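Re: beginner question about structure tokens

> Can someone show what the tokenized structure looks like for a real chain? I only ever see the sequence side.

Sure, here's an example I had lying around. Input first:
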Amino acid sequence: MSSRTVIRGGLVITASDEIHADVLIEDGRVAALAASGTPAAEAFAAERTIDATGKYVIPGGVDAHTHMELPFGGTFASDTFETGTRAAAWGGTTTIVDFAVQSVGRSLREGLDAWHAKAEGNCAIDYGFHMIVSDVNQETLKEMDLLVEEGVTSFKQFMAYPGVFYSDDGQILRAMQRSAENGGLIMMHAENGIAIDVLVEQALARGETDPRYHGEVRKALLEAEATHRAIRLAQVAGAPLYVVHVSAMEAVAELARARDEGLPVFGETCPQYLFLSTDNLAEPDFEGSKYVCSTPLRPKEHQAKLWRGLRTNDLQVVSTDHCPFCFVGQKELGRGDFSKIPNGLPGVENRMDLLHQAVVDGHISRRRWIEIACATPARMFGMYPTKGTIAPGADADIVIYDPNAEQVMSAETHHMNVDYSAYEGKRTTGRVETVLSRGEPVITEREYTGRAGHGVYTPRSTCQYLN
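And the corresponding structure tokens:
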């Protein structure tokens, strides 16, 4: 039994086109598009019709950087795969790529299996995995080849967090050399963690314990230095590089320089760096702890340079780095010592709306919105054109988006399993109305109609910018 849906009368927006078109969906995939009102469109027949008049019809968002149930700082990220993917759907995201974690002394396979067990049967939307490599050795390097073959084609390393995830330059170089051979993509948390730890120790010794000092010790120059070093190590290895959560203008300058040299270097930023700043970290009564993440929030003047980087394509992707910790009982672990505040912000539900607000504000175009939030992350991580666009053959991951609806972001109304919103009280224009995941309605006219277990694991090919 085939099932058909037709979406009529909307403005279909992809990274490359805007067209008033009807979309025919059959058996979970896009079957055809035809200009609205034409005989071809009127010939579309289906059991279910969705009226998108006056609305945008956009690809479901691809959030390539989330941390559901991540163990960190003696606690766990508060969103499970069930609650986090449901919230993602509410926000118009239909695919996440989460991070499986290798523990030091354990194999990559063990870490990946553990994350499969957390996610399987629990997700409302489709998901894939990157692999955090915490322990580079000969066995790990061999495992990287095997993971690429089975669709885990990206590996994250950390220049930060000594004693937890940290890799030294030699370990990084070895992993990059391996990825140069097997087609994998190294994702880098670029901060000089060794130097930062010295500054943390000195700040605490001076009695500087409030959340705002988290931003002061994790200096923009140490992000830029690590970004530069990662780029040059990748160049030596002949490997591509993807720098995650770029927050500072100095780091953007390093990426721009590398790209001007023709190097296969890519950069991601996140909504928190585009919309929040050190002013939030400095909020009184320990409220600033809500905004502790790494890389940290920067002074407001960095925002203009990040927006410019997105316009000039020196930054290609906006992901969330969604890693929520409740204020009560989790962020509070760092009262009296900012270094003990779990690092991470909630945001998987807010990304598509915040980036639409950026369209309204004139920072980016509508097509660039879809490019940085849907198409490029799908290409970067080997899922395009199944994900990230609306075209015949693509998965019917489609959002009906009302560009005129107004909303106020709040913990009272969001669906993430966290007791605060990083954007509390922010007014935005534009809102998700209906979300289809592989043709199935997950959100139907602002009602959740999905289910845990609808989302399936998605193996990925290698980065499509390197082929």
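Each token stands for a local structural state, so reading them left to right follows the chain. The chain has 14 helices and 19 strands.
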